[in-house]
Amino acid sequence: MGSDLVEVLINSVKLVLIFLLMVQLVPILVWVERRGSAFIQNRYGPNRVGPFGLMQLLADAVKFVFKEEFVPGKGHKLIFYAAPVVALIPGALAFAAIPLANTFHLEPFMFLGESWGPYDINFQGYNVGIGIVFILGVSSLGAYALLLAGWGSANKYSLYGALRAVAQMISYELALGLSIVGAILVYNTFDFHSIIAQQAGALSFTISGRELGIPFLPNWGIFYQPLGAFLFLVAAFAETNRLPFDLPEAESELIAGFHTEYGGMKMLMFYLGEYGHMLVASALLVTFYFGGYQLPFVSHVMIEDMLKSFGLGINMANVLTAFLFFTVFMIKCLIFLWIYVWVRWTLPRFRYDQLMDLGWKTMLPWALANTIVTAVVVFLARI
Amino acid sequence: MITGYLFYMLAFLLILFSLGVLMHSSPLFSSLNLVGSMIVLSAMYYLLQVPFIAAVQLIVYAGAVMVLFVMVMMMFDLKHEIKIFSGGFISNAIKCGLAGFFAFTIGATAFMSTEMISGSAKVKTEVLSVKSMAQLLFKDYLIEFEVLGVILLLVAVGAVALSRIKGGTHAS
């Protein structure tokens, strides 16, 4: 919570802001998805409402709010209403546990005639202390939203979609978890801040006492765990039910899968959940394999000192640096979100047996092999 | 202070969900209540300062085992099951008997445990870190841990074998 009023205030505002950030990114991503698909398929996409069709988002929001409430006659009302809410929770909880910028220090300052501080502020909703394990735990609950939606709708297509989705999510959760284990072994910690701190500077590592380094590459996890990063990316596609793994809502087979019966705000909440999951997956990928919020070769102390030399106060310099790192983090995330869109409109959908084969017979063995090889190498390197 | 209030709130929720598991006539709602109780249990683990076990509780039980349970429940004809389960003299008699036995067990436990708490039984209060837990699992209790793994593997193989048998109840 915080020790005094200002800290409590900052922490509360932070939680609300991070949630709003996640929610507000969704319309923009939907726009990117539509315009991106149009760009890839040599069409125009929505371009009539406002500049570049951006106002289409507002029009959609108004449409969502004013749509008719609808509950299927044979469905279960409580479960039907609960499912979209449950869909929103895991993504929001998980995203709030990821650090978005460096921890910055505030010197004592005057506020409302009193002196407050000093504070050290995490640019993060909350710090659970077990980092990635918490996120895996929370996001594994995402399956219930689809199950509840499928069953509560009392619709064959919904149920088929939900069952497919859950079988797929459970299968790929194994590969997802195992692909991260390699990275955790390399970093030797669960804590995000420590993981990101270890990716600072140029690529350098010690093998049996000898220092090796490549000065022109950043010290990012992707260079230690290329296979792990690739497996994580693929498993994240399957976990978020995006093409080429969108069997749960395969429109040519199941109409729209688990959200066939949903419309208006309730369907929008499923969208928020799905894009929230994408955002969490991108943020994890950036945190584990692409240096998190760090700029390559530049530490936050350097930028703070540079800003101070321009004559800014200490607090102002620290806050501005944190916002710069936050921007860096978001840009990295957006690059991966664009890859999601790109892949969606490039690759066709798998057949269901191919999907299961890929999950159990290809990705799981490779993830296991990656874990074992990493464990052996890490063990030998630390002797 | 806040931790105390949170504990009682979570304990109340846990009891509520657990009662839901027992009271609901539909197995689907029972299992959904069980999911709720497992999530609350994980929050309680976190409150007791074992965050790793809390997260593992979420991943393994709430996120994987119960998902499979709920998924299987959804494939049954639940109305038929409820009808079989909730009618008839014999089933009512069994239910009343079980409820009586349950109440007796709770009462007896509550009655007997007052003396046990007042005794000198000390609760271990040290915080269990991931490292010390791993050392317990992979050093002190390695054989037990591995044997459990093998038993689970046997159960999985047995389940697959049983599901592939033609004949018996599966004769078509």
Description:
The complex is a heterodimer of chains A (383) and B (172). Chain A is mainly α and 383 residues long. Chain A has one domain. Chain A contains 13 helices and six strands. Chain A has helices at residues 5-40, 56-66, 77-96, 132-139, 142-152, 156-187, 192-197, 226-239, 251-254, 264-289, 300-309, 314-344, 352-381; strands at 101-106, 109-111, 114-116, 119-123, 202-207, 210-218. Chain B has one domain (2-124): NADH-ubiquinone/plastoquinone oxidoreductase chain 6, subunit NuoJ (Four Helix Bundle (Hemerythrin (Met), subunit A), Up-down Bundle), CATH 1.20.120.1200. Chain B contains seven helices and no strands. Chain A binds chain B through residues 1, 128-130, 133-134, 136-138, 140-141, 143-144, 147-148, 150-151, 159, 162-163, 166-167, 169-170, 173, 177, 190, and chain B through 2, 28, 32, 35, 39, 42, 46, 51-52, 54-59, 62-64, 67-68, 70-71, 74-75, 130.
Show unreliable segments of chain A.
none
Number of separate strands of chain A: 6
- Secondary-structure element series of chain B: HHHHHHH
Question: What is the share of helical residues of chain B?
Answer: over 70%
- Report, as a whole number of angstroms, the end-to-end distance of chain B: 63 Å
Query: Multimeric state of these chains?
Result: heterodimer
Could you outline the blueprint of secondary structure elements for this entry?
The complex is a heterodimer of chains A (383) and B (172).
Chain A: H1 5-40, H2 56-66, H3 77-96, E1 101-106, E2 109-111, E3 114-116, E4 119-123, H4 132-139, H5 142-152, H6 156-187, H7 192-197, E5 202-207, E6 210-218, H8 226-239, H9 251-254, H10 264-289, H11 300-309, H12 314-344, H13 352-381
Antiparallel strand pairs in A: 1-4, 2-3, 5-6
Chain B: H1 2-23, H2 27-47, H3 51-74, H4 78-85, H5 89-118, H6 130-140, H7 142-164
